[in-house]
Amino acid sequence: MEFENIYKTYWDRIFRLCMGFVNDYDVAQDLAQETFIIVWQKLDTFRNESSIGTWIFRIASNNCLRQIEKEKRFPKSELSMNIMEEKQQSFEPQIQFLYQCIAELPETDRIIISLELEDVKQAEIAKIVGLSEANTRVKIHRIKEKLTQKFKENGQ
Amino acid sequence: MDNNTDFKDLWKKQKVNQPNIEELLLKIKQFKKAGLKSFWITNVLLIATSVFIGLVWYYYQPQFISTKIGIVVTILSMIIYLSVYSKLLSSFKTIDSDKSNQEYLLKLIEIKKKQHFLQSTMMNLYFIMLTIGIGLYMYEYAVRMTAFWAIFAYGITLLWFAFNWFYIRPKQIKKQEQKIDGLIAKFEAVNEQLTSN
Hints:
Chain A is mainly α. Chain A contains eight helices and no strands.
């Protein structure tokens, strides 16, 4: 597939994955861009061992994990948190709440549930994350339970 | 809101702004330029240092073999230091980002541990080599001085190195280690999420 096509097909999905991970619009935008820069660099090395989707999601989720390091280097200040909250008030509260709940999960759970909500097959999710399929299924089930619980508590 | 499809529905309603592809291609270009720039800066620095010391060699025509060894050791210490650092940086860039998350995390931990080891070892090696190099280099000129000035010159130099060795070096190493240890612990904790149930 050509880079431009990949970009058009996957941008939205990758952006949402990043957004689920950090729950910060600007940071997610940067992470998505970085992902596509890596995709652009590595496209030559892509062999059809896995589907292109799996390949791209792997790059994107790994890049999100790398984000942990940057967070340590530039801890979020109070100020930027305030700005972030203000910005998000324009979003529908339920959407905002869902992304907030996901971003509060353990890092790998964020990736797993984001991929599930993105309609990635569970077998593919297992391949992206590096878990067995059975394990992935259990994890997805537990995370959904957790999310449902949080939504109930919040009266959504 | 206990329905699975509702979560999916909400998830996909997130506002998304797909930037123009031209914008991205521009970023890619800048990214390539930045990489090239840091490559040039490192190399120009290395070459400039070597040329400078080479000129010293040429103009002052050292007679003693100790001076020459001193010069070589000093240059070598800088070259080793710089090349190890740039190699460390590039090992990060070439990390396989299309592995599974678990493999990727293990790789990150491995690199960070290597970095931890290298930073303290390299820092020690750099200081030791620099001290030996400069100590040897000074000998020829100290011999020509009166005893007082020779002791004075060596005294000042050794004091300076002692300050670096006992104060700056441990502080620097501690700072770096704290940062890296924190990261290793964090990456290990994330990896733990995948291995435990």
